[in-house]
Design a protein that fits this description.
- The protein is α/β, with parallel strands linked by helices and 278 residues long.
- Helix content is 53%, strand content 19%.
- It is built from twelve helices and nine strands.
- An eight-stranded mixed beta barrel has the order 1-2-4-5-6-7-8-9, surrounded by five helices.
- The model has no long low-confidence stretch (mean pLDDT 93).
- It binds ligand C2E and magnesium ion (3 copies).
- The site of ligand C2E has 24 residues, from strand 2, helix 2, helix 3 and strand 6.
- It comes from Rheinheimera riviphila.
- Keywords: Phosphoprotein.
Length: 278
C-alpha cells in the first residue's frame, strides 16, 4: 500500500515536472524567436547623485513584451536564457544597444551619462567576451568609462580566477565595474579586494529592511565597507523619501529606485533627462 502511494506520488510529480519542463522549453523557443525578430527592448532606469539630485547614469534592463501588451519578467526569462546559453547573444545585443544609446544621448547634448549593463556567467565563459566588449566600444566610439558592467556575487564565486582576470582586462581598458545585489549572495568578501570594482550596489532587500528594528545594520555595514575600499556605493530599490534620507545619512552617494524613476524606454528617458538637466 505504501509502495502504491509512493509510485502514485512519483507519477504525480513526474508529470507535473514534465509539464513544467515543456512549458519552459516552449517559452525558450518563443524567446529565441522574439529575440531574432528584434522584439526584445532595452529600458533604462536613472541613477541619481544624492548631493545634486542629478542623473549620473542609468541601468539598462531587458524587457520582453507579450502580444497581450504586458511583459514577461526578467526573473522568468533571464534564467532560461542563461541556462540555454542564449544569454550570450542577447547579452552582446544589450552591450551594443547600450553603446548606441550613449551616442544617442550625446547627440541630444546629454554628455557624460554612464550606462550600466548586467552581465551573466555564460558571457564570461566565452573567451572572446572581453575583446567583444572592447570592439563594441571602439565601433561606436564610446568613452569606455561610460560603460559599466554589473556582475553579481554568484558570477564571481562561480569561477573567481577567470572572472577576476576578465574584469582586470576590462578595467584596464577603462570600463567600469559594479557588484550588483551586494550582500545577498554567498559572501564574496574574500574576493572583494581582488575584484577591480568601482561601485557596490546595495541590494534592495536591505533597503526594504531599513524601517525594521535593527534593519539598518547591514546597509550601513555595506556602505562603510564601500567607503573603506574607496568605492562608490549606490542603494537600489529606493521607494520612499525616508529610505533616501537614511542611506544619505549613512554616507551613500547614489540612489536608484521607483521614488526617482522606474525603468523606461528611450523616448521617455530623453524627456526625463531633459527635465532633470533643467
Ligand atoms: P537587477 O540588475 O538587480 O536590477 C534591478 C531590478 O530592480 C530591476 O528589475 C528594476 O526594475 C527593479 N527595481 C528598481 N528600482 C526598484 C524599486 O524601487 N522597487 C522595486 N520593487 N523594484 C525596483 P527587473 O527589470 O525586473 O530585472 C530583474 C533582474 O533581471 C535584474 O536585477 C537583473 O538581474 C536581470 N536582468 C535584467 N536585464 C538584464 C540583462 O540585460 N542582462 C542580464 N544578464 N540580466 C538582466
Ligand atoms: Mg543590475
Ligand atoms: Mg541589483
Ligand atoms: Mg537582481
Amino acid at each position: 500500500r505504501a509502495k502504491k502511494n509512493l509510485s502514485q506520488n512519483y507519477e504525480f510529480y513526474s508529470s507535473e515536472m514534465e509539464e513544467q519542463m515543456a512549458g519552459r522549453l516552449a517559452l525558450l523557443r518563443t524567446l529565441r524567436q522574439d529575440f531574432s525578430q528584434d522584439k526584445l527592448q532595452l529600458w533604462y532606469q536613472p541613477q541619481i547623485a544624492l548631493d545634486t539630485n542629478k542623473v549620473i547614469g542609468m541601468e539598462a534592463l531587458l524587457r520582453w513584451p507579450t502580444e497581450q501588451g504586458g511583459f514577461i519578467s526578467p526573473a522568468v526569462f533571464i534564467p532560461l536564457a542563461e541556462y540555454s546559453g542564449l544569454i550570450v547573444e542577447i547579452g552582446a545585443w544589450v552591450i551594443q544597444q547600450a553603446c548606441q544609446q550613449i551616442k544617442l544621448l550625446q547627440s541630444h547634448g546629454l554628455m557624460d551619462l554612464r550606462i550600466a549593463v548586467n552581465v551573466s556567467m555564460p558571457q564570461f565563459r566565452n573567451p572572446l567576451f572581453v575583446q567583444s566588449v572592447i570592439d563594441c566600444i571602439e565601433r561606436f566610439g564610446v568613452a569606455p568609462e561610460l560603460l559599466e558592467l554589473e556582475i553579481t556575487e554568484s558570477v564571481v564565486m562561480d569561477e573567481p580566477k577567470m572572472v577576476i582576470d576578465a574584469l582586470n582586462r576590462l578595467k584596464s581598458y577603462g570600463i567600469k565595474v559594479a557588484i550588483d545585489d551586494f550582500g545577498i549572495g554567498f559572501s564574496s568578501l574574500s574576493y572583494l579586494q581582488q575584484l577591480p570594482l568601482d561601485r557596490i550596489k546595495v541590494d534592495r532587500a536591505f533597503i526594504r529592511d531599513l524601517a525594521e528594528p535593527n534593519g539598518t545594520v547591514i546597509a550601513e555595514t555595506i556602505i562603510n565597507l564601500g567607503k573603506k575600499l574607496g568605492l562608490a556605493t549606490i542603494a537600489e530599490g529606493i521607494e520612499t523619501v525616508e529610505q533616501a534620507e537614511v542611506v544619505r545619512a549613512m554616507g551613500c552617494e547614489e540612489v536608484q529606485g521607483f521614488l526617482y524613476a522606474k525603468p523606461m524606454p528611450t523616448a521617455a528617458l530623453l524627456e526625463f533627462l531633459r527635465a532633470n538637466k533643467a
